[in-house]
Amino acid sequence: MQSNPLDAICVDSKPDVVIDVREVFGIDTEMQISGFSESSANVPDKIDGYAFDPDTTLAILAGFSHDRRVMLQGLHGTGKSSHIEQVASRLNWPCLRVNLDSNISRLDLIGRDAIVVEDGKQRTVFQEGILPWAMQRPVALIFDEYDAGRPDVMFLLQRLLENEGKLTLLEQNRVVSSHPSFRLFATANTVGLGDATGLYHGTQQLNQAQMDRWHIVSKLEFLPFEQELALLQAQVKGLTEEQQPMLGNMVAMAQLTREGFKHGDISTLMSLRTLLTWADNFKIFGDLALAFKVSFLNRCDEEERMILSEYYQRCFDTEIMDYSGALSFA
To answer: pTM score, two decimals?
Structure first.
């Protein structure tokens, strides 16, 4: 039987080394933080060359070092979840992500009764959900898409967000206390006030009494040009020396779409995730314009593609709108 990697998280583990924030994260601060000396199967993989936003990184580190509940808010593709994971990877802190969409129910998080067979007999046992399970271990639990959660599920988290971090399991008539090294984070596209842009269907307004319980709310913006370029260069391998300058033009193109979105000229922006996808697709097709079309342009409003074509010409000094109709691939 294949072992479950979650079983590798030892309940008795605790931070046992001190990490210098300036040395590890390149941030000008005297802050030091405890971490684990050894990695485990649930520690996120380290991305070399990852660009850490100073303010966001300090907010996340405060969550780890002082047990603060931290929410990251920002547009899609700004790297909210990966930011938390990359901090955790350098602390060797086990990390789990749960997508808190509208299909996640209270029972999914808390647990439910299940029938098991032992010694040839059936009996009913309570199987813990991911929330009480994680609370009792040295785990950083990330709730992704926090602003898309169902209201009944969100109220479940109310007491957990308080300082003592406890959870009442009515199904078992017991109170679960948090492990000293349990940490809770969340990511959201909105800040709990609803979506005024129309980009994030399924998100909703959050109860402000619950928002008040988050100790730290940090807004993550897209990276500056130089940092985004450095990250792209670190991620995209195998390009020739002649192809390397192309990466700077790709970043410039992405940033033009964000400026256009900010000013209302276009309704779709290119995230860092899409930028990396564009580079990966270029390595597949060997054609930058085709890779751009299938990675980004074909999912944009047809009436806005002329604007995007102008952006492309400004960055690459070449026309892209030399076809009739949008390309599509099965």
So the answer is: 0.78
Strands (DSSP E) found in the chain = 17-20, 32-35, 70-73, 95-99, 111-118, 121-128, 140-144, 166-169, 174-177, 183-188, 216-219
Query: What is the DSSP secondary structure assignment for residue 150, as one 8-state letter?
Result: -
H or E segment to which residue 263 belongs: none
Confidence of residue 152 (pLDDT cuts 50, 70, 90): confident
Q: Could you tell me the two tokens for 243?
A: 């192809």
What are 99-128's pLDDT values in tens digits? 887 778 888 888 887 777 777 888 877 788
Average pLDDT over residues 163-186: 84
CA distance 148 to 132: 21
Chain CA centroid to CA 243, Å = 30
Contacts of 266 (CB under 8 A, 6+ apart): 257, 260, 300, 301, 304, 307, 308
Coil, strand, or helix at residue 328?
coil
Residue with tokens 């679960």: 176
Taking the C-alpha atoms of residue 280 and residue 267, their distance in angstroms, rounded to an integer, is 24
Tokens of 217: 């709310």
Q: What is the 3-state secondary structure (H, E, C) of 180-217?
A: CCCEEEEEECCCCECCCCCCCCCCCECCHHHHCCCCEE
Element (H, E) at 307: helix 305-316
Contact of 231 with 50, CB cutoff 8 Å: yes
**Spatial separation of the C-alpha atoms in residues 7 and 301, rounded to whole Å:** 47
pLDDT digits (tens, 9 = 90+) for 228-258: 898 888 888 888 888 889 999 999 999 999 9
